[in-house]
Design goal:
single chain, mainly beta, OB fold (Dihydrolipoamide Acetyltransferase, E2P), 10 strands
Amino acid sequence: MKAKEIQDLIDFISNSGLAEVKIETDEFKLSIKKYSEAPTVKMESATIAAPAAAAPTPPVLATPAAAPAVKEDTSKYIEIKSPMIGTFYRTPNPDTDPFVSVGDTVSAGQTVCIIEAMKLFNEIESEVSGKIVKVLVDNAQPVEYDQPLFLVDPVG
């Protein structure tokens, strides 16, 4: 890789939500990590003694815990995963309908989205036939390698 390509990759990562990228070829190994800029907050609690003449405070009632969310069984679904890092797009351009939506039937080899990486737009094709059950990524969001993009209920 040339220095300009490495700098472009660093700029892309700094502007995306990615925290770490590793690239390895026969010629070189490149590892880029982005550290969080959020400050570490250390909280200390102090015990304050109440005056002896103070009236006792009423006990605080705990609020009931929220009911645990019902987890949908997704084990029967197949994931369509991102083959690369980049930016996920559901449409070929802003003025058209998405390639696929929830409820659509897809066949193997059908384009389901585009991932932009290094200014190249790559059409991502489904490897399975079935019905789109869920879109897991919002349009124009950064995605990582092997990140699930869609859940598909396979045919058969």
